[in-house]
């Protein structure tokens, strides 16, 4: 069940990030399990980091809320981290 949850959350984050990014091919999503928390790391190109975070972090907050909600549907606690890829 945990891999299904991670795939669902991962897919939601990946689709949304690719839609936001000017360089969707540079978007990468990595998930890992830490005790009871699923960590989802979103990597975007340096040119897209501001766009994904948004003004005053509103876009990032919305992405975190959606990831958390997708995880809750599968009974998982999810944390989303946005990172600059290389």
- Please tell me the overall pLDDT: 90
- DSSP strand count: 3
Q: Uncertain regions: pLDDT < 50 for 5+ in a row? A: 1-5
What string gives the helices and strands in order?
Answer: HEEHHE
Query: What's the overall geometry?
Result: globular
Helix content, binned percent: 40-55%
What are the salient characteristics of this protein?
86 residues; 47% helix; single chain; alpha+beta; disordered N terminus; GMP Synthetase, Chain A, domain 3; three-stranded mixed β-sheet
What does this structure look like?
The chain is an alpha+beta fold. The protein has a single domain (2-84), classed as K homology (KH) domain (GMP Synthetase, Chain A, domain 3, 2-Layer Sandwich), CATH 3.30.300.20. It is 47% helix and 27% strand. The chain has helices at residues 2-20, 49-53, 58-73; strands at residues 28-34, 37-44, 77-84. A three-stranded mixed sheet has the order 1-2-3. The longest helix has 19 residues, at 2-20. The protein is globular and about 35 Å long. It starts with a helix and ends with a strand.
Write the layout of secondary structure elements.
Elements: H1 2-20, E1 28-34, E2 37-44, H2 49-53, H3 58-73, E3 77-84
Parallel strand pairs: 2-3
Antiparallel strand pairs: 1-2
Summarize the structure.
This protein has 86 residues and is α+β, with helices and mostly antiparallel strands.
């Amino acid at each position: 069940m945990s891999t299904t949850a991670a795939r669902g959350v991962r897919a939601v984050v990946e689709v949304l990030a690719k839609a936001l990014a000017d360089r969707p091919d540079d978007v990468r999503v990595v998930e890992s399990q830490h005790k009871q928390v699923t960590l989802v790391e979103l990597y975007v190109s340096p040119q897209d980091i501001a766009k994904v975070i948004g003004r005053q972090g509103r876009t990032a907050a919305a992405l975190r809320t959606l990831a958390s909600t997708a995880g809750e549907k599968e009974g998982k606690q999810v944390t989303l981290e946005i990172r600059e890829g290389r």
